[in-house]
Design a protein that fits this description.
The chain is mainly alpha-helical. The protein has a domain of about 250 residues. It is built from 25 helices and no strands. Helix 11 packs parallel to helix 22 and helix 18 packs parallel to helix 22. The longest helix has about 30 residues. It is globular, with a radius of gyration of 23 Å.
Length: about 500
């Protein structure tokens, strides 16, 4: 959900950033200044070329991390008015560019992060994870499944990084208990599987809800703005949850092949689970407050269509073209929940400041990039390429989108991957959905996602183990996404 760590040491990273910075500027100048069909679209002047140049600059800088990616996300705020991308003057272009950074989906995600931050502060998410693991069972195979399942469940509602940070100490405690009860015998294979379950569960779980990971909000915001399709909170769960349910058992099966090499005896993990739960004590008042607010928000999200019908006639048009929709209901519910937690003192201002605010800029930059493609006329310039890509059979379009999402997320953040792919892929909901899911499915490299890097630092996971396990899961994810989008998302979006 957040930006992956740098790939390489300081010197290598510095050189790479300078190369990326220069490459982005070169791409911008080449597209903006060199003659091409983008400069000759009737009625649009140079605007499509300038929108394409800005998109290329952002894509290169995102992929190379030449600048912090939330800085790159702010490029439209400066470039669109300066270049006249919208053709409405400096003030008009500036206001339109800025509007993307205050989209309702930004506030939906902010409210979700506030709920997650409150859960982290009172350790409600930890209690839920421990309860799930204990309910699943404490034999080695069940314990591994419990770690994976509880991690994925928590990641539905809070960031994958926070989930991994929370779950790794629980996994380490389990492994220490197993090692102690076995007379100090190492549990390297099982330990690697448990740590990878934390990373992979954190990544996969976030696919299931609108607030689980930024690409989901990027997707919903993009299709609403560019295609006029509103995706409600429960409908997105119908998009994401089945994939999570299908893919988690496959992840478990792959990890169990690694874990079972240690041939551990049964039920050694129950003691540590009981001890961890006992150490937490009874459910605190703040845990009850957070749980109550979360359940109320979830109920309102799930009944969003009814709330929208009741409120729509009473909400004025705040500006020309404004239309009250499900995303506004969800954003108001999310922010209401977050502010309620502050008022109830279940969320402190110190914890609030720890929220990754730069992620909100990244979301806004993605929406601004998409709006620039539309408002600058680049869509018309891309029409020929999109028609050629759209001429492929839908199955192959979906397959290429899934592979692109999985592959690019190995070298760029999942949010940047989604932002770029949604702007260049054919405007087919199953294709765009496949790319969005694929952006959250990198398992092979420590630098791919923050959870991968976090568990790599545990000492249990070696790079060859992660790569061998992860490459297979990357390919399996791309194949499953392709079938899933073709057989399930296609009729779902029909």
């Amino acid at each position: 959900m957040e930006n992956p760590p740098r790939k390489g040491g300081p010197k290598e990273s510095g050189i790479g950033r300078r190369i990326g910075l220069a490459a982005g500027i070169a791409a911008f100048l080449a597209i903006a200044l060199l003659p091409s069909g983008l400069h000759r679209i009737p009625g649009l002047g140079h605007r499509p070329a300038l929108a394409a140049a800005t998109a290329a600059l952002m894509a290169v800088w995102w992929f190379t991390e030449a600048l912090p990616i939330h800085w790159t996300a702010c490029a439209p705020l400066a470039l669109y008015p300066l270049l006249g991308v919208y053709g409405t003057g400096v003030a008009g272009s500036g206001l339109r560019a800025a509007s993307s950074y205050v989209d309702a989906y930004i506030f939906l995600f902010l409210g979700g992060m506030m709920i997650g931050a409150a859960s982290e502060e009172c350790n409600l998410h930890r209690r839920v994870a421990l309860r799930i693991m204990r309910a699943v069972g404490a034999s080695p195979r069940r314990l591994l499944w419990g770690v994976l399942l509880s991690t994925a469940f928590v990641s539905l509602w809070i960031s994958n990084t926070a989930t991994a940070v929370m779950m790794m100490p629980i996994g380490m405690a389990l492994l220490a208990q197993l090692r102690a009860s076995g007379g100090g015998r190492e549990v390297r294979n099982f330990g690697a599987a448990v740590m990878l379950a934390v990373a992979y569960g954190s990544n996969v779980g976030g696919i299931g809800t609108k607030i689980g990971t930024p690409p989901n909000s990027v997707f919903c915001g993009w299709v609403q703005k560019q295609m006029g399709v509103e995706i409600s909170f429960p409908f997105y769960m119908a998009v994401g949850i089945p994939f999570v349910a299908l893919f988690l058992p496959l992840v478990w099966a792959v990890l169990w092949r690694l874990a079972r090499r240690d041939a551990l005896p049964e039920d050694r993990g129950r003691e540590v689970l009981d001890r961890e739960l006992a150490a937490m004590g009874p459910v605190s008042r703040n845990e009850k407050k957070v749980l109550a607010v979360f359940l109320a928000a979830a109920a309102l999200w799930m009944s969003g269509a009814l709330v929208e019908r009741l409120m729509a006639p009473r909400v004025p048009a705040f500006w020309s073209g404004f239309r009250f929709g499900s995303k506004h209901v969800e954003a108001w519910v999310a922010m209401g929940a977050g502010l309620s937690l502050l008022a109830l003192r279940a969320l402190s201002f110190r914890q609030l400041l720890r929220i990754p605010w730069d992620t909100l800029l990244l979301l806004g930059g993605g929406f601004a990039l998409a709006d620039g493609i539309e408002g600058g006329g680049l869509k018309e310039g891309m029409a020929g390429w999109l028609r050629a890509a759209g001429g492929l059979p839908l199955f192959w379009q979906i397959g290429l989108a899934a592979l692109a999402g999985v592959g690019l997320s190995a070298v760029a953040s999942n949010t940047a991957t989604a932002n770029v792919l949604l702007g260049i892929l054919p405007r087919s909901l199953p294709v765009l959905g496949a790319a969005t899911i694929g952006a959250s499915c990198d398992f092979a490299l420590p630098a791919g996602t923050p959870p991968n890097a976090i568990v790599f630092g545990s000492g249990y996971v070696r790079l060859p183990t992660m790569m061998k396990t992860g490459v297979g899961l990357d390919l399996a994810a791309a194949a499953l996404i392709t079938l899933y989008a073709f057989l399930y998302l296609r009729p779902l979006f029909a």
